[in-house]
Amino acid sequence: MNNVIYPLACSSWDQKELDAMQRVISTGSYSMGKEVRLFEEQFAEYFGKKYAIMANSGSSANLLMIAALFFRKHNPLKAGDEVIVPAISWPTTYTPLQQYGLKVKFVDIDLDTLNFDLTDLESAISDKTKVILAVNLLGNPNDFNLIKEIINNREIILLEDNCESMGAEFEGKKAGSIGLMGTFSTFFSHHISTMEGGLVITDNEELYHIMLSLRAHGWTRNLPDVNLVSGEKSKNPFNESFKFVLPGYNLRPLELSGAIGQEQLLKLDSFVQERRKNAFFFNNLISKIQGIRTQKEIGESSYFGFSIILDENIGISRDMVVSKLIAKGIECRPIVTGNFTKNPTIKYFNYTIHNNLINADNADKNGFFIGNHHYLLEKEIEYFVNVLNQILN
Question: What are the residue numbers of the active site?
Answer without folding.
Answer: 190
